[in-house]
Design goal:
mainly alpha; two-stranded antiparallel ribbon; disordered N terminus
């Protein structure tokens, strides 16, 4: 029986919801629970890749590795001061060389700035070759005194001699003779400094 476009139901259901109950009264009122699957980045991977990543144990971090064992021993203050002491002397010599040599050569020795610029350019190009070469030779050195100490001790005297030669050239009459003196002196200084600094820096990582 229909009234105003609403279908009514007669019977036991109508007795519970009323004499004329809509069909909505007969529907279940308990909502259905939806099963939700948590999203994971592994869903975006192929099945074989996801299975391999699940079976692979996690790699321990550096903090975990450090926590499992005793911490490395720290250097004493005296050892660190003794390691840094030679670089203080090298820094003073290098400051005088880099700041005052060009002015000394142009104002006192009366060399052309272009000549000194060419000498410095050649020395820097050679420095780019001597640095890795010195590092390779230092790594390959084997003696009882130590591969780093032997290079640092052997380069100390040539470094000082090259520094003195740059600031105390012989009294030559022409500028070409002074240029021929300054070029090997500057090259000897940079080579000696490389022979000291490169093993010294490598020695710091081995302490």
């Amino acid at each position: 029986m229909m009234h105003a476009g609403i279908q009514t139901v007669r019977g036991p259901a109508a007795h519970e919801c009323g004499q004329a109950a809509p069909l909505d009264c007969l529907m279940e009122t308990t909502p259905k629970k939806e099963s939700r699957i948590p999203f994971s980045s592994a869903m975006l991977l192929p099945p074989e890749v996801a299975r391999s990543s699940e079976s692979t144990p996690p790699t321990p971090t550096s903090v975990e590795l450090t926590a499992t064992g005793p911490p490395p021993p720290m250097l004493s203050h005296s050892s660190r001061c003794l390691y840094a002491l030679p670089m203080a002397a090298i820094g003073m010599i290098n400051f005088l060389f880099e700041v005052y040599l060009l002015k000394f050569a142009t104002d006192v020795l009366l060399l052309a700035p272009a000549v000194m610029g060419t000498i410095f350019s050649i020395s820097r190009i050679w420095d780019a070759v001597s640095d890795p070469l010195c590092g390779y030779l230092s790594d390959a050195t084997r003696n009882s005194f130590g591969r780093r100490r032997s290079w640092m001790l052997g380069s100390a005297l040539p470094l000082w001699c090259a520094f003195v030669a740059c600031f105390s050239p012989p009294q030559l009459a022409d500028a070409s003779g002074l240029s021929l003196w300054m070029l090997p002196s500057v090259l000897a200084y940079y080579t000696s400094r490389t022979a000291f600094e490169v093993p010294h820096l490598a020695f710091g990582t081995e302490l």
